[in-house]
Amino acid sequence: MDAKKYKGLATTAIRTGHHRTPENEHSDPIFLTSSYVFENAETAAAVFAGDTPGNIYSRFTNPTVQSFEKRLAAMEGGERCVATASGMSAILSVCMGCLKSGDHIVVSQSIFGTTTVLFNQHLTKFGIETTTVELTDIESWQSAIRDNTRLLFLETPSNPLTELVDIKQLAELAHDNDCLLVIDNCFCTPILQRPLELGADIVVHSVTKYIDGQGRCMGGAIIGSEEIVGKDVYGFLRTGGPTMSAFNAWVFIKGLETLSVRIRAQCESAMKIAQWLEQHEQVNHVYYPGLTSHPQHELATQQQTGYGAIVAFEVGNSKQDAWDFINRIDMISITANLGDVKTTLTHPASTTHGKIAPELRVKAGIQENLLRLSIGLEDVEDLITDLSCAFNVD
Ligand SMILES: Cc1ncc(COP(=O)(O)O)c(C=O)c1O
């Protein structure tokens, strides 16, 4: 197949990266093997030395994982992808590959709770300092940068409040200061947003989310240049070993094949639910980039090709109001995962963002009465029926 002839993302997600074996299989094969055999001692030495190409050991070379990596790299428009065991190990691998003791990083305050804990508690033990800034305020990014700042990290849209930042603007700022711009593209996937095209240096994913899409396997990915991802990050993975399993890579290859249709349908339902919630008298605020009331609606329209399927909203005035709402839900799953075809409901302040210091949580705008919906593929009318029954009827 002449891949250069075909430009569409859905085609890329279905057709890229599969090198058919002599068995002529149509679906990608799974290479469940830890190691590979060599014809003789000389070949083994040459492959180990990198003089001859070949598989060595599945911590760092596995054909199924490589098929997944090639496909996702092509979709994100990057030279190289490195797959990892989880989204968190993808973020850790970027840090281990690109940072050293004495470096400083600037991080958005609006990110997944565990990522905050990684930066604020674990990396500090190794002499890497973090400054947290407000995602949408470019000036605060600018003033946080120091001589030893090496990397800027953010999610756009952010988890759970769906705040956005102008990637092009931040990429310019990062490069003027010799920093890498790293973007967690979990909420959009390459179907809705391609940060590398907008100037970002590295994209990370929790593949566990939309790319799997059916809540089965844990995985992560890092996409960027051959120089940074192919050398520095891959170098860490090869030695540190936070490797994606071949079985999971196969599941994710299958997930990529349906990603485009899933995410578009999920976006459509999310828009309907956000509009329905916005007019509900018991809802105080809805956070969804597709709503014209969202402060960065215009930026979302210009930077993304869809608004995503995460809708956050505030109900009542307290944690108890939010918990009562959750406890009246009948069908929607009460779980912390997102990106699944099953709609999920989460109370961020006591779950995904529960380990962040309360003052930081409040600063990031995550109130006790905030709920996060990840809209799946059920009939939207049935989702509205379930949500309607969860509102207080007194
Ligand atoms: C935006 C975002 N990034 C990273 C992660 C971490 O991914 P994983 O759970 O696959 O380690 C999550 C998990 O919820 C997430 O929501």
The rough form would be described as: globular
Give the total of domains. Answer: 2
Q: Which spans have pLDDT < 50 for at least 5 consecutive residues?
A: none
Q: What CATH architecture label of the largest domain applies?
A: 3-Layer(aba) Sandwich
CATH third-tier fold name of the largest domain: Aspartate Aminotransferase, domain 2
- Helical content, roughly? 25-40%
Provide the spatial order of strands within the biggest beta sheet.
1-7-6-5-4-2-3
CATH class of the largest domain: Alpha Beta
Give the cofactors and ligands: pyridoxal-5'-phosphate
Distance between the termini: 63 Å
Secondary-structure class: alpha/beta
Reading the helices and strands in chain order gives: HHHEHEHEHEHEHEEHHEHEHEEHEH
Task: Figure out the total of helices.
Answer: 14
CATH superfamily of the largest domain: Type I PLP-dependent aspartate aminotransferase-like (Major domain)
Architecture blueprint of SSEs:
Blueprint: H1 9-15, H2 41-49, H3 63-76, E1 80-84, H4 87-98, E2 104-108, H5 113-122, E3 129-133, H6 138-144, E4 149-155, H7 167-176, E5 180-184, H8 189-192, E6 202-206, E7 220-224, H9 226-240, H10 246-278, E8 283-287, H11 297-303, E9 310-315, H12 319-328, E10 333-334, E11 344-346, H13 358-363, E12 370-374, H14 380-390
Parallel strand pairs: 2-3, 2-4, 4-5, 5-6, 10-11
Antiparallel strand pairs: 1-7, 6-7, 8-9, 9-12, 11-12
Bound molecules: pyridoxal-5'-phosphate.
